[in-house]
């Protein structure tokens, strides 16, 4: 069994590593939690354990994981029905675009890209992202993440 990941991204190169690990993750719309007052977006997901696949395991397993972005100024979505909590989305990857194309500026936009044209754009003061594995996804069912009151 491969160890659980905990990765932090503070720049576009770091985010590209996290993007690789969340490629083909399944996300339920109900597990996308935007906490505007905290400037935070949390996305619960069931991600493929790519390390296990590289170790030669025939059947890749899924892990429950949380993806968190901090210092988020705005969160907008396209082609995602947040009113349909059981909708399952397939995460294709994550990109970062610096503000005005200037790499020396810490701010910019993180784009979470989903299959079938879905997307979430996060305008951030600076890039702060963390991916944390929470355990094996034994059932492959909903993640059961709930928004705190």
From TrEMBL:
Kindly give the Pfam families that the UniProt entry links to this protein.
Answer: DUF2948
Q: Which domain of life is it from?
A: Bacteria
Against InterPro entries, the record matches this protein to: DUF2948
Report what the protein is called. DUF2948 domain-containing protein
């Amino acid at each position: 069994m491969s160890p659980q990941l905990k990765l932090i991204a503070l720049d576009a190169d770091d985010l590209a590593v996290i993007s690789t690990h969340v490629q083909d993750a399944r996300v339920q719309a109900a597990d996308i939690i935007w906490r505007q007052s905290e400037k935070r977006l949390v996305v619960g997901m069931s991600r493929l354990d790519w390390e296990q696949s590289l170790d030669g395991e025939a059947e890749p397993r899924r892990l429950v994981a949380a993806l968190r972005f901090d210092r988020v100024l705005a969160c907008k979505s396209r082609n995602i029905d947040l009113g349909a909590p059981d909708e399952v989305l397939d995460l294709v990857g994550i990109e970062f675009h610096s503000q005005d194309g200037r790499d020396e500026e810490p701010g910019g936009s993180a784009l979470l890209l989903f299959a079938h044209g879905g997307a979430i754009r996060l305008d951030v003061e600076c890039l702060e992202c963390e991916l944390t594995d929470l355990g094996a996804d034994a059932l492959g069912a909903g993640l059961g993440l709930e928004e705190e009151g």
